[in-house]
């Protein structure tokens, strides 16, 4: 592990060249009864306001209230009025690489964990504003098991779990190393390529695999249970590639798969899957890359062509095809951009919904009177704006 000091002269600045759209700020009613029922007006800001890339893979919010955007070209931190940009540079005093696969804030320890697609992990300390760097070292048994980090999960107790191309790993703070869980250390571990992970209500870790479906790992007993798609019978996982997981209501888990959205009930061990809904846009049955449930009970499913959303209370009627889902067609918002894929939906501390995609500016859906704005502000960074 190495610890690096950030240089504000190198990494904190406002971009001065105007380019394409940076943000779309969408305003809509805050009431649940009329949310998304009205026309959504929007305005745009330019690249001079600071985001490093339109390819946004993940979004998080740290203990101070800053928003962090993981992109294909470094990390952008937003304080409500300007951005701080972090890149890999020739001095080596910043990120391991610019291609970021995931970013998660540990608000308990005031750190931000940054996963690289091919180059390990960086950890940003919010107090000292320094970066720590972790990479695989074949000579250290407790180093990263792989430099290919695909997802990060911060547990409710501050434990840091990582999905990698060679299994699951847990950060060991006492020894500043990592504990590995894969098919060589855990009996029955089905697939070392873990694409995504999420914490369950009892501390269990939900895993989404590349080829072997969905697993529930018990970190206390180190036992694992796996569920795969069955070609016969109902209530089975729709596909063995699970791209994203979100623990929803008690005992329920949302799964984004290559064959649509599914809800798993671990009390009954059954899956409820979406079938084609309507004849015009049955996209929710197709490849779903991201799923998220907000605090108001709306479920968001990001696909390769649009963003589907519905109220959790309508789920049974939707599955029974008695009610349709709502669609937000991203290409209609981003004029001139062909089929942007939704990669992340994030809810900030004020209840605003942020949407990141693979080549279009992030979208903000302000669903609360208090929301972030990109513009001049006299407030402290921790306050952001009202």
TrEMBL record:
Keywords: DNA-binding, Phosphoprotein. Gene3D superfamilies: YVTN repeat-like/Quinoprotein amine dehydrogenase. The lineage of its organism: Bacteria, Pseudomonadati, Bacteroidota, Bacteroidia, Marinilabiliales. It comes from the Bacteria. Pfam families: Reg_prop. This is DNA-binding response regulator, AraC family. InterPro entries: Reg_prop, WD40/YVTN_repeat-like_dom_sf. The keyword DNA-binding applies. One of its GO terms (molecular function) is phosphorelay sensor kinase activity.
């Amino acid at each position: 592990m190495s610890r690096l000091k950030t240089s504000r002269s190198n990494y904190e600045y406002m971009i001065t060249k105007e380019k394409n759209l940076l943000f779309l700020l969408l305003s809509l009613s805050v009431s649940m009864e009329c949310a998304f029922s009205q026309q959504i007006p929007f305005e745009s800001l330019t690249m001079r306001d600071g985001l490093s890339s339109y390819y946004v893979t993940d979004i998080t919010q740290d203990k101070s209230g800053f928003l962090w955007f993981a992109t294909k070209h470094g990390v952008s931190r937003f304080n409500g009025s300007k951005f701080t940009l972090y890149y890999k540079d020739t001095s080596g005093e910043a990120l391991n690489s610019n291609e970021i696969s995931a970013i998660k804030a540990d608000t308990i320890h005031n750190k931000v964990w940054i996963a690289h697609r091919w180059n390990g992990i960086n950890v940003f300390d919010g107090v000292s504003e320094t970066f720590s760097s972790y990479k695989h070292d074949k000579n250290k048994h407790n180093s990263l098991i792989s430099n290919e980090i695909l997802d990060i999960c911060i547990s409710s107790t501050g434990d840091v779990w990582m999905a990698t191309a060679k299994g699951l790993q847990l950060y060991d703070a006492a020894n500043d190393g990592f504990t590995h869980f894969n098919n060589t250390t855990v009996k029955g571990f089905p697939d070392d390529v873990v694409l995504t992970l999420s914490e369950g209500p009892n501390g269990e870790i939900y895993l989404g695999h590349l080829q072997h479906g969905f697993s529930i790992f018990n970190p206390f007993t180190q036992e694992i249970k796996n569920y795969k798609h069955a070609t016969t019978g109902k209530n089975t996982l729709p596909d063995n590639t699970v791209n994203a997981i979100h623990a929803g209501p008690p005992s329920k888990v949302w799964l984004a798969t290559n064959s649509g959205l599914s809800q798993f009930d671990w009390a009954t061990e059954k899956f409820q899957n979406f079938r084609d809904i309507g004849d015009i846009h049955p996209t929710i049955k197709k490849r779903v890359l991201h799923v998220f449930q907000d605090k108001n009970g709306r479920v968001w499913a990001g696909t390769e062509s649009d963003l589907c959303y519905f109220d959790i209370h309508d789920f049974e009627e939707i599955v029974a095809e008695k009610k349709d889902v709502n669609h937000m067609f991203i290409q209609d918002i981003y004029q001139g951009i062909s089929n942007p894929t939704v990669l992340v939906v994030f809810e900030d501390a004020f209840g605003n919904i942020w949407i990141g995609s693979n080549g279009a500016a992030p979208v903000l859906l302000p669903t609360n009177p208090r929301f972030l704005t990109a513009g001049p502000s006299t407030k402290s960074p921790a306050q952001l704006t009202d």
